[in-house]
Amino acid sequence: MSDIVPVISATGLFTPSESVSNAELVESFNTYVERFNAANAAEIAAGNVEALQPSSVEFIEKASGIKSRFVMAKAPLLDPGIMAPRWPERADEELSVLAEMGVKAARQALDSAGRDPRDVDAVLCAASNMQRAYPAMAIEIQAALGIHGFGFDMNVACSSATFGIQTAADYIRAGHARSVLVVSPEICTGHNNMRNRDSHFIFGDVATAVLVEAKNIAPRPHWEIVGTRLKTVFSNNIRNNFGFLNCATPETIGTPDKLFVQEGRKVFKEVVPMVAAMIVEEAERLGIDPAGLRRLWLHQANAGMNRLIAQRVLGHEANEDESPTVLDTYGNTSSAGSIIAFNLHNADLAPGDSGVICSFGAGYSAGVVFVRKVA
Fold first, then answer.
1. Which of the residues 125, 158, 188, 358 is marked catalytic?
2. Which of 16, 250, 311, 323 is deepest in the core (most CB within 10 A)?
3. What is the pLDDT of residues 335-372, one digit of tens each?
4. pTM exceeds 0.90, yes or no
5. What homologous superfamily is domain 224-374 in, according to CATH?
């Protein structure tokens, strides 16, 4: 096994300038519900159409823990006649929206590490919500930053960033690269069904970047990657059927299965024990006491899931210091969630402290990255 040690040198975070509160979201949703029920009053009275039920701030916060979310296109999301992101289509010569977000997060990570883009060997665009099939978003980001080497896209849903970190670490251990950017731009609102009461509040937009490098060139302080583990188990409980094979069919656009759909209770029941066991087993394999982990940077999907996972790992109910939450202000940002938590809540840890970055989501997919702070 190679003696080259991979580390996380720095992270970056791009946050959109606009934010949507639960109150704003509920007002938009309930207006849509009123219009739908009024337009279908006769069919509803005849029992042929089911009346839609309104949402509420209390319902959203109890179901998810989310209070607001950042978005790339606020006005169309809140327009009851649209309820989806919209912006002018850009020319092929212009930087795409997703790449623009990724570049901003990547530059922040590079600046934090004092790294010149020309020193980076590869770019991995690891995200759920890709803007197009090709050319790869990673290559566009690579070109915009002036990075030589190579880049490619990878999608493992909400676990894309942790899968990307392990891939980057493996490249470094094998000597194929010394510095790799893992960029996760997520416009999750584009795949969300804003007209579904059970999920209209879930997602937000954001971009993160993680600079993974060989320890001998990394600035200090940094985070040694002690170990990683990835797992996938096929499940239809989280699914999105939108793709190039059906996107050209007008009658299918906007149907519920072409957007984010999930069986939330099944996901909770099946994913929580799987992820908790995965963290504990990998910690023990690495010789780390799970109860002694200083911090858990968990995927930001549902406050209840995180609370239970942390409790099973640590052996007690975790406080905000042990398992910080960004879900309340960012919403679910898919692959970026655990990286946002790490980015915003790691500076206070002491040299030698250990923690775990953990993601989980559709697939099912799950990834854990154990890190130790080095001064």
1. 158
2. 323
3. 999 999 999 999 999 999 999 999 999 999 999 999 99
4. yes
5. Thiolase/Chalcone synthase (3.40.47.10)
